Amino acid sequence: MPSRKFADGEVVMGRWPGSVLYYEVQVTSYDDVAHLYTVKYKDGTELALKESDIRSQSSFKHRKSQSSSSSPSRRSSSRSRSRSRSPGRPAKGRRRSASQSREHKDDKKKIIQETSLALVVLVLFKPSENNTKRYNGEPESTEKNDTSCIILEQKLKPDLEIKRVLEQYSLRSRKDDKKTEEIFSEKKTFVAVKPIEKVPSKTKELEFGGRIGTFILIFLLPATVLYLLLMCKQDDPSLLNFPPLPALESLWEWRVFGVFLLWFFLQAVFYLLPIGKVVEGLPLSSGRKLQYRINGFYAFILTAAAVGALLYFEFELHYLYDHFMQFAVSAAAFSLALSIYLYVRSLKAPEEELAPGGNSGYFIYDFFTGHELNPRIGSFDLKYFCELRPGLIGWVVINLAMLLAEMKIYNLSMPSLSMILVNSFQLLYVVDALWNEEAILTTMDITHDGFGFMLAFGDLVWVPFVYSLQAFYLVGHPTTITWPVAAAITVLNCIGYYIFRSANSQKNNFRRNPADPKLANLKFIPTATGKGLLVTGWWGFVRHPNYLGDIIMALAWSLPCGFNHILPYFYVIYFICLLVHREARDEHHCKQKYGLAWERYCQRVPYRIFPYIY
């Protein structure tokens, strides 16, 4: 194992990824496995660099140029100049010996070589205005780098002047000059254009309580789903009235598991249909971009047609309500089996395909958070498929089943107003997500989190069976609301949806085309990555306006259930905790990614989710 060259805390010069610019950085740690240094730039940005991309500060202290006024070539050149003679001819009454001529030529060659080397150094270390601004995110930081560049230019200016004079008065043939220029061009190209390959390092900062926390969550999440569903089945679903545990054999039925598999693979078939456009995701650490087919809305239309056909042939959809607990257990068992498969296959995945947040080396942690970033079977992306299709569309089907079950149990000709509101609000939310499917490619779930138990269980179990809790609750605990109350709840949901959709659209449009004339009124702070942080519009109001809209909608979904029990408000309480935790994760990642620009953004936009509160 090679020994490390730079110590922790040492101040060195680090190359900015994707460029030839070097900046002063401080070494913070070293990964013995990946052989990568974690360095911190002056603006707070932290990156992992290879040893070949780091140089000591002493290597940037160039020796004094030899092309001073006392240079032999300059003296001989000045002595040989005359108004009546060619610069190349010797002075009158003076004969130049062969040895003197050779020395003179050797001196000129030496100066040309030194000047060529100086130009290569200048190309390497002179940051352009655009790159410097893009790195620092503000013009104040660029002044420091430009000053160091000017000093270097002043040191090299005599060498450049000598080269200009020698080229003008040189005795060599133009053929030789052309050959020298070609050699110099090749040297400059070789040095300046060297691609930098990013290799993901080990995950050092563990989330969700680390190994112990993720181990507990693997058991706590399924237990929470089971507890909530059992509570909804009780006549008195108060917190102090703990439900009795059901018999284990009542929780499993192979027929139900077969129906769940049929549903899962039906959605997979819809996903594989060659309909919808194909788009590219964000660049991976290797620079490669994966392709995704955007056809989630078409899959929803086909699913609606299939469900309509079942109802036409008098299939009893309330079968879902009668076996709701068994469906939840079947989905949990399938998600566990899928998680095991994902972890086993990730052990053979290349290093560059592992998830930045799930590469800790600890089995439990990587199993929970996901070891591989984008597991695929051919062109079938498992994470992207599960993110929207089986669970999200299944959520709407479950809500419809609860609506039909309420009508059957209470012999209603039409569903209750509370049930209509819950179904309508959540249907709008799902259709919106599928219509704007492309926007999910920029979320943390796709770009950062691996596909493990956390996302598999969340997509296939938590979303369809916990998010439908209000509809499930209303079947066993009908609630009557008046039309004015229903109108007020509808207005609240519309406000939340407007904030949620307009904020997300503003962000997505700006990411796609910041130069769009429609966005000319938006102001932003440039960052080191070349992206901008919006400081006007919704994103100048709070840092996560989409989260604010989400929480307002979650409250509107729970209000139709009344205030007799807190159980139907579990969703909004959980959602606030989820989004606050996710906001903290976003804050940490953005500070590392954007550095000083993110600190400026936080000063401009002090409130995170709730204005004047948090």
From TrEMBL:
Membrane topology listed for this record: Multi-pass membrane protein
Domain of life: Eukaryota
Low complexity bias locations: 66-75
Any Gene Ontology CC annotation: endoplasmic reticulum membrane
SUPFAM superfamilies per the UniProt record, alphabetical: Tudor/PWWP/MBT
Region of interest (Disordered), ranges: 53-109
Ranges annotated as biased composition (Basic residues): 76-97
An example molecular function term from Gene Ontology annotations: Delta14-sterol reductase activity
Enzyme class: oxidoreductase
One BP term from GO: cholesterol biosynthetic process
EC number: 1.3.1.70
Pathways per UniProt: Steroid biosynthesis; cholesterol biosynthesis
Domain Tudor: 4-62
Protein family per UniProt: Belongs to the ERG4/ERG24 family.
Protein name: Delta(14)-sterol reductase LBR
Protein species of origin: Machaerirhynchus nigripectus
Encoding gene, per UniProt annotation: Lbr
